[in-house]
Design goal:
Radius of gyration: 20 Å
Distance between the termini: 38 Å
Strand order of the largest sheet: 1-2
Number of strands: 2
Number of helices: 5
Helix content: 55-70%
Largest sheet: 2 strands, antiparallel
Order of helices and strands: HEEHHHH
């Protein structure tokens, strides 16, 4: 299985998980959902159950579609508009397709990390609403740290992959 197929498979599972979570939670949510939390996890913003569910569905579906769509559109952009290290070398016509596939896989993994963050935040929000309590700030902080590590890891992969190109011998 290629890394591209594996990444899309994991993303599909994460999206199905998120959609299943939303479907399972919807009937259990109160009519007015605390949707924003301030210091100490105290709720300071509410929305209707339907609006909250539509927002979560939009994020769950929209985020990966947007990120993968941006990668797809980048294939058609002029090289000067694509911002990767040493782009003239890596986006040369001989290497462009390989480089764009690599970026696609990285953005799918970023989408997966974002999906996991959304699943976690949605679950914590659901728990706070069901218990009529403050948001669990320790778990929220853990999710944010996990997400940042994943994003920095993906950026590290990008910088490693697109590091300084080898010196080519003149013929």
């Amino acid at each position: 299985m290629s890394s591209r197929v594996a990444a899309y498979s994991v993303l599909a599972v994460a999206m199905l998980w998120a959609l299943g979570q939303i479907a399972w939670q919807f009937p259990k949510l109160p009519e007015e959902v605390a949707s924003h939390f301030g210091r100490g996890g105290e709720p300071d913003g509410v929305m209707s159950k339907a609006a909250f569910t539509i927002m979560m569905l939009g994020l769950t579906i929209g985020t990966p579609v947007f990120l993968v769509g941006v990668t797809y559109l980048t294939r058609f952009m002029p090289v000067k508009l694509v911002n990767i290290p040493h782009r003239e070398y890596w986006l040369h016509e001989d290497r462009r397709e390989s480089s764009m596939r690599y970026m696609e896989v990285i953005l799918v993994w970023i989408s997966i990390a974002t999906q996991l963050l959304l699943i976690g935040v949605n679950w914590l929000t659901f728990q706070a609403n069901m218990q009529k309590a403050a948001l669990d700030t320790t778990s929220t902080a853990f999710l944010i740290v996990f997400y940042m590590v994943a994003i920095f890891g993906c950026c590290g992969w990008i910088f490693w992959r697109f590091r300084k190109p080898p010196v080519l011998e003149a013929s």
